[in-house]
Amino acid sequence: MNEPAKSGATPVVGTGKRILVIDGSPQGQGFCRALGETYVIGARSQGHVVRQLRLADLRFDPVLRGGYEHDQRLEVDLLDAQRQIHWAEHLVFVYPVWWGGLPALLKGFIDRVFLPGFAFRLRGQTRIAEQLLSGRSAELLVTLDTPSWHFRWLQGAPAHRQMIRSTLRFCGIRTRRVHEFTPIRGSSEERRQDWLRRAEQLGAKA
């Protein structure tokens, strides 16, 4: 039911953007993975160079155990993730919203990877952040069970504000678009196929 929509698009020959798709869902075969894969199909059809990180497949401790006051050795997968982020011009985060926020795996990934000296640097007594990931853009593909209007107007869209303002913007990354796929629970096969086609179109417009 969650297989990516098939595409007969022929890849465009040429130099495209360097895109990194980060699947932040802990569900290895869930709908987020299908969304990410169809986005990749669309982006590659337009000549973009796309890499993928599936957090569920990485091996790392998601807990920043000593806070920012103590060094915590980065696992091999996290060192590679930092290299991939440096490589990318455009970051695409695909993840579910649970309890109004990010899933713990994605939050832990951010805690461990977006570190001082990599994503930002605090300068002087004012502690104003120097943005070390400037020049990159981001796009969010988010699944929810809560209706969009309820999440935005009654809950205040806390997950979006956390990612866009408190995390990405703080590091210098400009969020271009947020795409919601909701409600997932109880959605029909036809509806999900429509969403997958939409994800492919979004990739083509990256």
UniProtKB/TrEMBL annotation:
One Pfam family, short name: Flavodoxin_2
Keyword hit for Oxidoreductase: yes
Domain Flavodoxin-like fold: 17-201
Superkingdom of this protein's organism: Bacteria
Keywords recorded for this protein, A-Z: Oxidoreductase
InterPro entries, sorted: Flavodoxin_fold (IPR003680), Flavoprotein-like_sf (IPR029039), NAD(P)H_dehydrogenase_qn (IPR051545)
Family named by the database record: Belongs to the NAD(P)H dehydrogenase (quinone) family.
The protein's name: NAD(P)H-dependent oxidoreductase
